[in-house]
Specification:
3 helices
Length: 66
Amino acid sequence: MARRRQVMSEQLKYELAKELGFLDKVKDGDWGNITTRQAGSLVRAAIAKAEGFMAAEHERQEGLLR
């Protein structure tokens, strides 16, 4: 079976896990130790971070066009 392309960097995943308070569960690299709720929180946090980045980039682009 073909491997899927990684969407989030490992660094980002660990950063978000730290922010969300479950870094201790994944320090050894075993992401199977987190709950479904924690995984969902991680995904939501990643989406929010990406949306924030995109909004900031849009603002920057708008500023350059004016």
